[in-house]
Amino acid sequence: MKKQKTELTGVCRLQVQGVKDTQDLLSGKWKTVIIAALYNAGKFRFMDLSRHIEGISPKVLSKELKDLEMNRLVKRTVLDTMPVTVEYELTPQGKSLNKVVEAMGEWGIKYRKSILKK
Amino acid sequence: MKKQKTELTGVCRLQVQGVKDTQDLLSGKWKTVIIAALYNAGKFRFMDLSRHIEGISPKVLSKELKDLEMNRLVKRTVLDTMPVTVEYELTPQGKSLNKVVEAMGEWGIKYRKSILKK
DNA sequence: GTAAGTAGTTTCCATTAAGTAAGTGCTTTC
DNA sequence: GAAAGCACTTACTTAATGGAAACTACTTAC
To answer: Are strands B43-45 and A43-45 parallel, antiparallel or unpaired?
Structure first.
């Protein structure tokens, strides 16, 4: 008899790997929040995001947006208005994170309630 | 006329806040992976987790488990066997993260496939 | 008595993330 | 012509995270 209880099957390993991949892509304090904001707003300009996401500095916002753009989750569009404006929106790839965003949103709301009850 | 396009409604704000709360609780590289592993395994001993999650050091694993325990997502049980063994499992609160884990798992699997296709 | 297994802790170091503050280059408004 | 708004960038600093290696304390097996 071999030890079996400590082994996970292939399907589970795959899921754990998937979680790890997703986690790596969404690393840091802000990426999921940015995605959630864009998910709700559709499009946002830099200053809209900056104002909407409390506590984020322009430097960090800029860096996070670049990361997200590199991973093809966010699309950046420069409009040739005079003062230049830049729009950010989710790519289809980014929009496909909807289940993750919704699950995290719902869970967070419930968790907050359960804490306040005590 | 006021600017309206840059405003999110209350419900959306709530969701963004929820995402932020969840993100804060699951901060760092490893927490979601640990939760996914426990979600699949039911129970795991320290060394099981250590072996199963590739690349994590005992120090970091120990710290992450403590954080998760503090936030009541993971339960730690010491068994009075001789060599002492310790079991970790998700609390009901931790188990309620199932949608998040599943969504992240699925998305990660799809994302990986979409990258490989190119 | 030496090794190996369990469940960690400790120390030390490197990397990364994040925050502050100021600056840039452009334009419109006062 | 000064201020203010947009979209950033740069420089500097601090805080947080993460990793490697060794060590503790206990027990069983060889």
So the answer is: unpaired
